[in-house]
Design goal:
Layout (H helix, E strand, L loop, with lengths): L5 E12 L2 E12 L3 E5 L6 H8 L7 E6 L2 E2 L2 E2 L6 E2 L2 H9 L1 E4 L11 H11 L5 H14 L15 H13 L5 E5 L7 H16 L4 E4 L3 H7 L2 E6 L2 E6 L1 H6 L4 H8 L7
Length: about 260
C-alpha cells in the first residue's frame, strides 16, 4: 500500500500584526485525500493560518511546504516575503480557496466566474474549461444558474458557485474559510452537503468552521486552536468525545454538536 504524503505541511509558523501575536509556533499536516478541520473561538488564529498557508498573508517565521516543496523566503521578521514569484503562482494554481463572503466577480455570470481562472491562469482552451465548468455546476446543484449573475443568487447558491470555481482549477487541495458562516441554516445545509460529497470523494481539504457537526462528520483530523497555539488535536472521535483540556471542554459545551 502506497504511503500517503502530506500535500500541505506547516512547521513552527509565527504570525503577528504589530504587537499582536496571532500564530505562536503552529504546525499542521494535511495528507493527500484527508480533511483537516480547524476549530476554535473567534480570534484564535484559524483564518490567519489558512491565509498564511495560501500565502495571502506573510508569516514572520516557520516553514510552509506544498507537495514537499518548501516556500523560499527573502528577508526576516516583518519584512519576510516569498522569494520566488513563479513558485507562488505555481502553488496557488494548485491550491484553491473558498472564502466566507463568496468573493465572486459581480460583473461576470456564474459560468464566467468558474471558467475565468483556468483560461487566464492555466491557459486552458475555453471550450474545454466550459464543459468542465458546467459539469462542476451540475455537481454542486446550480447548473441552471450558469447564466445568472451573483447578485441574482442566494447566499447558498453563491457559495456553491465559489466551490465550483475552486474545483475548476483541478487543485491538489482546497482551503475553505468558514464557508457556511454567512448563510442561514437552510442555505448552510446546501453547502454542507457539497462539502460532505467532496470529502467522500477524497479531496484534500483544510476547513475552518464553526459547525462542529460538519467538522465531526467530514474530518480525518481536527485541530483546536486557542490564542494562536494548538491546544489539542486528534481524530474527531477522540477530540469531541474525550477532550482533555478544560478550554476545549468549555468550547464544546458552547457549541451545538449532535453528531457525537
Amino acid at each position: 500500500m502506497t504511503e500517503k504524503l502530506p500535500v500541505i505541511q506547516i512547521q513552527d509558523l509565527h504570525k503577528s500584526y504589530d504587537s499582536l501575536d496571532v500564530l505562536k509556533g503552529v504546525g499542521l499536516l494535511a495528507y493527500e485525500g484527508s480533511v483537516v478541520s480547524l476549530i476554535g473561538a473567534s480570534g484564535s488564529g484559524k483564518s490567519t493560518l489558512l491565509r498564511c498557508a495560501n500565502l495571502l498573508e506573510n508569516s514572520q517565521s516557520g516553514d510552509i511546504l506544498f507537495c514537499g516543496d518548501a516556500v523560499r523566503w527573502t528577508g526576516t521578521g516583518t519584512s519576510r516575503r516569498p522569494a520566488d514569484k513563479q513558485q507562488v503562482q505555481q502553488m496557488r494554481s494548485q491550491l484553491s480557496m473558498v472564502f466566507q463572503q463568496f468573493n465572486l466577480w459581480s460583473h461576470m455570470t456564474v459560468l464566467q466566474n468558474v471558467t475565468e481562472a483556468p483560461v487566464t491562469v492555466l491557459q486552458e482552451a475555453p471550450h474545454t474549461v466550459e464543459a468542465r465548468a458546467r459539469s462542476l455546476l451540475d455537481k454542486v446543484g446550480i447548473l441552471d444558474k450558469a447564466d445568472m449573475y451573483p447578485a441574482q443568487l442566494s447566499g447558498g447558491q453563491q457559495q456553491r458557485a465559489g466551490i465550483a470555481r475552486a474545483l475548476a482549477m483541478n487543485p491538489k487541495a482546497i482551503l475553505l474559510d468558514e464557508p457556511t458562516s454567512a448563510l442561514d441554516p437552510e442555505m448552510e445545509q446546501e453547502v454542507v452537503q457539497v462539502i460532505k460529497t467532496l470529502a467522500k470523494e477524497g479531496l484534500t481539504m483544510i476547513l475552518v468552521t464553526h459547525d462542529m457537526n460538519l467538522a465531526h462528520d467530514v474530518s480525518d483530523h481536527v485541530v483546536f486552536l486557542h490564542q494562536g497555539k494548538i491546544l489539542e488535536e486528534g481524530t474527531p472521535q477522540t477530540l469531541f468525545k474525550t477532550p482533555k483540556s478544560d478550554r476545549l471542554q468549555q468550547f464544546l459545551r458552547s457549541t451545538k454538536i449532535t453528531s457525537v
